[in-house]
């Protein structure tokens, strides 16, 4: 069915390991993907927190003490920055990745974007209330 | 405005160069001149051995794609004056092997395109004799955007995943699969899914999004690929997790 | 239809992405900054009650597992494309294996506390 192909000799260019530093959009993409490291780190941190709380007043106090060490504060601050990058980019890409239809009409991207931030606010308020107030 | 602009054009003559080398030229800078006009000027006035592809000069044949200052562009739709005072760097389309000067080997793309069966597939024997297919404006609108592709391969040049993993079937092919899936006349989505659900299909894509940014026809291959992933996942859940009674 | 694992992994990856985007920021602000730095000061007894409730533990486990898959899946492709480590199988094993180990650790922590 398909015609025979003649392979012509050609020059294969190489892509360097740092292909992503030269272009802003590629750089942002790699940073976005690297947020995964901090997602994993914060899961571990969350588990350590739970274990410390369950371990009694003293272990909990020790945990809080260690969490104020400069090293941990810096790591967590950097991690939070990456996490915010994840949240912002994830929300921004969702309307591009899926088409929602309500009553036969396509839900506009801005509405989906806004709905996600509303969800973020509601969930955040609920967790804040659970941890601090309830 | 200066009356000329420097163009740095990548040359590769297999008999002379062991690798592509940039060569500097100077061309007149006119407001209405595109990068392609600059190349044609070089070929006509300075070096007739310069090789590059073009045909329509109006952004419809898709053959004049090159990397201009690092961005994949249709050179017939890219104006020299936008790069003044220059220089304008013109390289062969990224991610494809170079045959000569600005001409790249597109065999890989030509081989991948038919894999997704980009044509209307029917499961009945309806032919022209039975009359035309009726399609409403809404049904046309459902796939129209994805049908604008001119196979210029700019999206492949912009895609780092394709560059690093040549097995990846790539943006335009998946957008085209989506174009036929969304066509009310087509019955072939299952067949295409079987191709694209493989790991060389949609899963290599990490949603860099550059294919959509560079597409001159606003096809949005990145969106098509993510929707295809969702479709593949939904179908998989339906086929393997839901109890029989709930399957469609 | 052909059975493939990747669609399910991707679905979990996406779910984990949503969880990480929606639930994780507030948790990090609270647990990594507000509590240690004393911006808010709930009693230890209150927090203990919270982590001891079955609801919290099940909810945490249900949030943690997809986040781990999310991180593993994303990191896998970052290592493969971004850093061009071309040992496909090894990278995949290390990433998903790591997620599995952490998920088991989470199970242990959440069932024994
Ligand atoms: S999807 Fe756009 S960039 Fe890609 S080949 Fe088609 S027209 Fe060109
Ligand atoms: S020459 Fe046809 S698209 Fe540029």
From TrEMBL, chain A:
Transmembrane segments: 34-55, 67-93, 113-132
Pfam families: Fumarate_red_C
A single GO cellular-component term on record: membrane
Coiled-coil annotated spans: none
Keyword Metal-binding: no
Keywords: Cell membrane, Membrane, Transmembrane, Transmembrane helix
Name of this protein: Fumarate reductase subunit C
Organism in which the protein naturally occurs: Nocardioides islandensis
TrEMBL record, chain B:
UniProt keyword Ribosomal protein, yes or no: no
EC supergroup of this enzyme: oxidoreductase
Biological process terms in GO annotation: respiratory electron transport chain; tricarboxylic acid cycle
Signal peptide boundaries: none
CDD domains noted in UniProt: fer2
Coiled-coil regions, chain positions: none
UniProt keyword terms in alphabetical order: 2Fe-2S, 3Fe-4S, 4Fe-4S, Iron, Iron-sulfur, Metal-binding, Oxidoreductase, Tricarboxylic acid cycle
Residues covered by the 4Fe-4S ferredoxin-type domain: 140-169
Membrane-spanning parts: none
Enzyme Commission (EC) number: 1.3.5.1
Pfam families the UniProt entry points to: Fer2_3, Fer4_8
Cofactor annotation remark: Binds 1 [3Fe-4S] cluster. Binds 1 [4Fe-4S] cluster.
An example Gene Ontology molecular-function term: metal ion binding
Reaction(s) catalysed by this chain's protein: a menaquinone + succinate = a menaquinol + fumarate
Source organism superkingdom: Bacteria
Residue span(s) of domain 2Fe-2S ferredoxin-type: 7-96
Pathway terms, separated by semicolons: Carbohydrate metabolism; tricarboxylic acid cycle
Cofactor: [3Fe-4S] cluster; [4Fe-4S] cluster; [2Fe-2S] cluster
InterPro entries: 2Fe-2S_ferredoxin-like_sf, 2Fe-2S_ferredoxin-type, 2Fe2S_fd_BS, 4Fe4S_Fe-S-bd, 4Fe4S_Fe_S_CS, Beta-grasp_dom_sf, Helical_ferredxn, SDH/FRD_Iron-Sulfur
Homology family: Belongs to the succinate dehydrogenase/fumarate reductase iron-sulfur protein family.
Descriptive protein name: Fumarate reductase iron-sulfur subunit
TrEMBL record, chain C:
GO BP terms, alphabetized: fumarate metabolic process
Pfam families linked: Fumarate_red_D (PF02313)
Keywords noted in UniProt: Cell membrane, Membrane, Transmembrane, Transmembrane helix
One GO CC term on file: membrane
Listed transmembrane segments: 7-34, 54-77, 89-110
Presence of the UniProt keyword Phosphoprotein in the record: no
Source domain of life: Bacteria
Protein name (database record): Fumarate reductase subunit D
């Amino acid at each position: 069915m398909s015609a025979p192909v003649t392979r012509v000799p050609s020059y294969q260019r190489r892509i360097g390991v740092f292909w992503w530093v030269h272009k802003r959009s590629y750089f942002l993409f790699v940073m976005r993907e690297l947020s995964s490291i901090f997602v994993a780190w914060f899961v571990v941190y969350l588990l350590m927190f739970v274990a410390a709380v369950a371990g009694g007043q003293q272990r909990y106090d020790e945990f809080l003490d260690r969490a104020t060490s400069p090293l941990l504060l810096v790591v967590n601050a950097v991690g939070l920055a990456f996490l915010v990058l994840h949240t912002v980019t994830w929300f921004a890409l969702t309307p591009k990745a899926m088409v929602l239809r309500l009553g036969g009409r396509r839900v506009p991207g801005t509405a989906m974007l806004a709905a996600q931030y509303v969800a973020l606010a509601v969930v955040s308020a609920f967790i804040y209330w659970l941890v601090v107030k309830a | 405005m200066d009356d000329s602009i420097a163009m740095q054009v990548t040359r590769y003559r297999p008999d002379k160069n062991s690798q592509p080398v940039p060569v500097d030229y100077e061309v007149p800078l006119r407001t209405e001149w595109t990068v392609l006009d600059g190349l044609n000027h070089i070929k006509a006035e300075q070096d007739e051995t310069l090789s590059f592809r073009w045909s329509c000069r109006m952004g419809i044949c898709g053959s004049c794609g090159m990397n201009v200052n690092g961005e994949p562009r249709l050179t017939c739709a890219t104006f020299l004056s936008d790069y003044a005072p220059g220089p304008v760097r013109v390289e062969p389309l990224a991610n494809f092997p170079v045959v000569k000067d600005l001409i790249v080997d597109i065999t890989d793309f030509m081989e991948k395109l038919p894999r997704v069966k980009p044509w209307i597939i029917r499961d009945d024997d309806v032919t022209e004799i039975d009359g035309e297919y009726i399609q409403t404006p809404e049904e046309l609108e459902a796939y129209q955007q994805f049908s604008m592709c001119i196979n210029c391969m700019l999206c492949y040049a912009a895609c780092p995943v394709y560059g690093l993993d040549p097995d990846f079937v790539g943006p335009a092919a998946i957008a085209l699969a989506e174009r036929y899936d969304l066509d009310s006349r087509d019955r072939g989505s299952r067949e295409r899914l079987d191709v694209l659900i493989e790991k060389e299909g949609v899963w290599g894509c990490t949603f860099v999004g550059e294919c959509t940014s560079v597409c001159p026809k606003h096809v949005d291959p990145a969106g098509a690929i993510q929707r295809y992933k969702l479709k593949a996942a939904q179908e998989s859940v339906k086929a393997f997790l839901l109890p029989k009674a709930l399957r469609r | 239809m052909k059975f493939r694992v990747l669609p399910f992994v991707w679905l979990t990856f996406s779910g984990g992405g949503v969880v990480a985007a929606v639930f994780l920021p507030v948790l990090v602000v609270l647990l990594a900054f507000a509590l240690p730095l004393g911006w808010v000061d709930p009693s230890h007894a209150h927090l203990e009650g919270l982590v001891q409730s079955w609801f919290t533990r099940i909810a945490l486990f249900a949030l943690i597992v997809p986040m781990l898959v999310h991180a593993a899946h994303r990191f896998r492709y970052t290592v493969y494309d971004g850093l061009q480590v071309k040992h496909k199988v090894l990278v995949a094993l290390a990433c998903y294996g790591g997620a599995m180990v952490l998920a088991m650790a989470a199970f242990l922590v959440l069932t024994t506390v």
